[in-house]
Design brief:
mainly alpha
Length: 462
């Protein structure tokens, strides 16, 4: 009898052998794409993991440990007030200002604690999409109409997507809600309230503040309030870190001796390397991790939950970042990925003539039907390309400026702005691991379709 496992193993080995045998290693573009994949991964590790993801993992772990399931169900569950739950979720991005990857641990945490798929996905979209500084930068660099359209589209999309996800998966949501209600029989509300609410609020406020200001990007204009905040952002982070340690001391009744010891690593690194504040930040994170190993019944679960999110999400993000760098290159190296930038630019232009010229055909021979359908195609392609690309916070604006200067239309520009920051290939892989392929595909489809429609409407009037 044929062993199916052996057949699968043989097919896997045969596919792997064929892949390596046929690799075009002598091709210059392939070599460049491989290099860009690792350049993007290095940049991601240096600039994004420590400053963005690590604080997000700690916040997600804290939600899982210190926020009761009853509270999540009350505000984001199936029986929650829809106006309140979707209202809070849809404007969360104005506070967090995170990217499509940093929001993932937070989304996973509230969803696993019992939040409905509707409010959870509204939060998932709005977290990276509704960034006040990014919207202001869009209006200033790309024009007020595009900035206003981005703001209106992002807020409305988060609510629409959340409601659509709720309606499409309402049967599963009812089953999930019933299971959550049954589990509360074994988790009495008084047993979950182990910490005073004001202490938990201060703990979360300090962690969110650290996440926001540690990643505060430099504005284009070297004046005004935004530049002032950027100039002193590490001073603000230092104050928030000290405030966070004070809150932790009172929450977990940690001896002052251990708190003072935890200050030694970041202080030492700052004295030795004053020009590298991110190194001191890393040392501070290390100190917090060490504190969680103290014998404390609340600190240990926090560490376990934080590590659980990290080991689930980080490997998938790394794979996604490598793939994004390989196919699309990096934002600093033009035309460095496997997919030539000229193809992307020609596919989002105002006319299909450029793609005909790229193919070596007469631009004047474009069929009428293709010209008629071209706006639909360009907006859809911009939405899809934006959904696959990875944009760090605020990087989408200069990238889009370059595309507009290369001939990208106003409609596709808005479509990319609405789909790009909220989605990315790494982001998709992680969402799939949290909610499954069916819900992930639906969420991605809704973002792409709505972005395409918004681009078509905006392009028709502007």
């Amino acid at each position: 009898m044929i062993d199916r496992k052996e057949i699968k193993l043989f097919l896997f080995l045969a596919a792997a052998f064929s892949l390596f045998y046929l690799l075009p290693v002598s091709n210059q573009r392939f070599q460049s794409a491989v290099l860009q994949a690792f350049i993007l991964a290095r940049w991601y590790a240096r600039e994004h993991v420590l400053l963005c993801l690590v604080p997000a993992f700690f916040i997600a772990g804290a939600i899982a440990v210190f926020i009761s399931q009853n509270a999540v169900l009350k505000y984001f569950g199936a029986k929650a007030n829809k106006l309140l739950s979707y209202g809070v979720a849809s404007v969360s991005g104005t506070i967090l200002a995170v990217c499509s990857c940093t929001v993932l641990p937070l989304f996973g945490s509230i969803y696993m604690r019992g939040a409905g798929i509707g409010p959870a996905t509204a939060f998932l979209y709005s977290g990276p999409a509704i960034n006040v500084l990014a919207i202001i930068l869009t209006a200033r660099i790309l024009g007020a109409p595009l900035g206003i359209a981005r703001a209106v589209g992002a807020v409305s999309f988060s609510v629409i997507i959340g409601l659509m996800m709720h309606l499409l998966f309402i049967k599963e949501e009812r089953i999930k809600n019933a299971d959550a209600q049954n589990s509360r029989v074994f988790l009495p509300e008084e047993d979950e309230k182990t910490m005073p609410l004001w202490q938990i609020a201060l703990q979360f406020a300090s962690m969110v503040g650290i996440l926001i200001f540690a990643n505060f990007a430099e504005p284009k204009i070297s004046s005004g309030p935004w530049f002032f905040v950027f100039r002193f952002k590490w001073h603000i982070v230092t104050f928030l870190f000290l405030f966070f340690l004070s809150v932790v001391k009172f929450m977990f009744k940690i001896k002052i001796f251990y708190i003072l010891i935890s200050l030694i690593p970041p202080l030492t690194v700052y004295i030795l390397f004053p020009s590298y504040p991110s190194a001191a930040f890393t040392a501070g994170v290390f100190s917090i991790v060490v504190l969680t190993f103290l014998k404390n019944k609340e600190l240990s679960p926090w560490r376990v939950q934080t590590w659980g999110f990290a080991k689930q999400i980080l490997p998938l993000l790394l794979i996604g970042v490598l793939a994004a760098g390989f196919f699309l290159g990096t934002t600093k190296s033009k035309d460095s990925g496997m997919i030539p930038n000229a193809w992307i630019e020609s596919l989002v232009g105002d006319s299909p003539s450029s793609i005909f010229a790229l193919l070596g055909k007469d631009p004047s021979s474009v069929p009428y039907l293709l010209r008629f359908l071209w706006p639909l195609w360009t907006n859809f392609f911009a939405s899809l390309a934006g959904a696959l690309m990875y944009f760090a916070t605020l990087t989408e604006v200069p990238i889009l400026k370059g595309l507009i200067e290369s001939g990208m239309g106003k409609g596709p520009s808005l479509a990319l702005l609405l789909a790009g920051p909220a989605l990315s290939l790494p982001n998709m892989l992680v969402i799939n691991s949290i909610v499954g392929a069916k819900k992930t595909f639906t969420f991605i489809s809704l973002v792409v379709i709505l972005s395409t429609i918004a681009g078509l409407i905006f392009g028709a009037f502007f």
